[in-house]
């Protein structure tokens, strides 16, 4: 009797350990999405002053700002995982060159701001974000994994002058579907990575 109880206890412990190991994993995710809110300030005053010295300005374009992300995801249990994301975004704009009309008392050219010509397309200095979040997995046993997340990050611009600011984030709903290793994901999020829509593919090791 004792032998049977011992065997059952050993089997139970093995099954429990195996079940716990099933959830623990490490993944890499590559994503893109709708531009984060901070890109509304991508064309910085420092960058505008640099252009103005050469009689230039930029006209921001209204279409999509490129946004890309790379995430490292640690699954620590059936219901929890932690994610660290690095993101980069930039704002394309039309570069405008103004004509000159003489010089100022210091010998610098005067620019006619009513006489501007678009001379090309330029990108703003990139904004870099680092964002950490905790994800709560609502459906660890479903084929479509549902989760929510909260986090805190920092947004930085390196040039022409370094600046950084904290930025919180929240993901009310994220979905993930795929196989044992390769999967796709889509999120409704407000974060330093994207605004409203963010998605991509991941690989689970």
Topology:
Blueprint: H1 2-23, E1 25-33, H2 45-53, E2 56-60, E3 67-75, E4 80-89, E5 92-103, E6 109-123, E7 127-137, E8 144-157, E9 163-178, E10 182-190, E11 195-204
Antiparallel strand pairs: 1-3, 1-11, 2-5, 3-4, 4-7, 5-6, 7-8, 8-9, 9-10, 10-11
Structure report:
The chain is an alpha+beta fold and about 200 residues long. It has helices at about 1-25, 45-55, and strands at about 25-35, 55-60, 65-75, 80-90, 90-105, 110-125, 125-135, 145-155, 165-180, 180-190, 195-205. The chain has an 8-stranded antiparallel beta barrel. Strand 10 (about 180-190) and strand 11 (about 195-205) form a beta hairpin. It is elongated and about 75 Å long.
Structure class: alpha+beta
Gyration radius from CA atoms, angstroms: 25 Å
Shape: elongated
The main pleated sheet reads as: 8 strands, antiparallel, barrel
Which stretches of 5+ consecutive residues score pLDDT under 50?
A: 3-21
The helix content is 10-25%
């Amino acid at each position: 009797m004792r032998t049977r109880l011992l065997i059952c206890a050993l089997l139970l412990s093995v099954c429990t350990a195996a079940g716990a190991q099933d959830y623990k994993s490490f993944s890499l995710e590559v994503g893109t999405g709708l531009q984060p809110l901070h890109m509304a300030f991508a064309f910085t005053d420092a960058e505008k002053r640099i252009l103005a010295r050469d009689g230039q300005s930029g006209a921001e374009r209204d279409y999509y700002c490129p946004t890309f992300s790379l995430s490292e995801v640690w699954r620590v249990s059936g219901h929890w995982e932690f994610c660290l994301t690095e993101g980069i975004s930039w704002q394309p704009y039309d570069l405008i060159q103004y004509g000159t009309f003489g010089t100022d008392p210091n010998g610098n050219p005067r620019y006619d701001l009513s006489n501007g010509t678009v001379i090309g397309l330029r990108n703003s200095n990139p904004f870099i974000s680092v964002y950490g979040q905790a994800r709560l997995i609502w459906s660890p046993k479903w084929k479509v994994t549902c989760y929510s997340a909260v986090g805190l990050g920092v947004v930085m611009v390196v040039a022409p002058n370094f600046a950084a600011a904290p930025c919180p984030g929240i993901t009310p709903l994220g979905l993930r579907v795929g196989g044992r290793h390769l999967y796709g994901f889509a999120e409704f999020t407000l974060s330093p990575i994207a605004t409203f829509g963010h998605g991509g593919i991941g690989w689970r090791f």
